[in-house]
């Protein structure tokens, strides 16, 4: 074997290895692209599925939030009316105003009950407790009107003072609770409490 033949043989070996390498390199590049396309399609399908779920949740949350906003506003209006009637009674305890308070509280309870699904449990409980307190306030005002009309003895005057003090406590508690409810409602409406 001469030098020329050795170079030809070496060239043929290098060419065959290089050709096979080039074929393998090209084939692996192509397979990589095919694999990448399949994975990309899977991820796009998964993203589409999650986007659909997310949109469904967004629509449900928006519907709930709008309903809750409407309900909180309706109840807030009734609570303000209860406060107005209560203030009128505070100035002068008259039996007809006690009946107006009773109707207003019944309205407020009904409004709260009809929106119970949309209220936060803590707000719902707080308002129900408040309406129970107003039942005592209402009774106290009615009793006060009766005592003032029929006041005869010192004992009855003492009863009047006790009823006034009791009603003042209920009224003050209502104002504190009303302020808290207002802040809770605002937080809920703003989406600060979820």
Account of the 3D structure:
Helices cover 90% and strands 0% of the residues. It is an all-alpha fold and 194 residues long. α1 packs antiparallel against α2 and α2 runs antiparallel to α3. It is rod-shaped, with a radius of gyration of 40 Å.
Number of helices: 4
Write the element-wise H/E pattern from the N-terminal end onward: HHHH
Task: Report the average pLDDT across residues.
Answer: 78
- Return the structural class: mainly alpha
Span from first to last CA? 89 Å
What profile does the largest beta sheet have?
none
β-strand number? 0
Radius of gyration: 40 Å
Proportion in helices: over 70%
Uncertain residue ranges = none
Shape: rod-shaped
Strand content: under 5%
């Amino acid at each position: 074997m001469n030098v020329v033949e050795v170079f030809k043989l070496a060239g043929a070996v290098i060419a065959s290895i290089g050709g096979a390498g080039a074929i393998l390199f090209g084939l692996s590049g192509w397979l990589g692209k095919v694999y990448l396309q399949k994975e990309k399609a899977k991820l796009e399908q998964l993203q589409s599925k999650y986007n659909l779920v997310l949109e469904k949740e967004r629509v449900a949350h928006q519907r709930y939030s709008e309903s809750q906003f409407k309900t909180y506003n309706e109840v807030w209006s009734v609570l303000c009316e209860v406060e107005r009637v209560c203030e009128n009674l505070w100035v002068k305890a008259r039996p007809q105003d006690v009946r107006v308070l009773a109707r207003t509280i019944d309205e407020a309870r009904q409004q709260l009950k009809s929106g119970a699904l949309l209220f936060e449990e803590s707000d719902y409980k707080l308002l129900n407790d408040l309406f129970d307190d107003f039942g005592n306030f209402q009774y106290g005002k009615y009793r006060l009107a009766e005592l003032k009309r029929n006041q005869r003895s010192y004992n009855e005057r003492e009863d009047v003072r006790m009823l006034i003090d009791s009603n003042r406590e209920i009224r003050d508690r209502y104002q504190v609770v009303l302020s808290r409810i207002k802040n809770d409602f605002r937080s809920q409406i703003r989406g600060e409490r979820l």
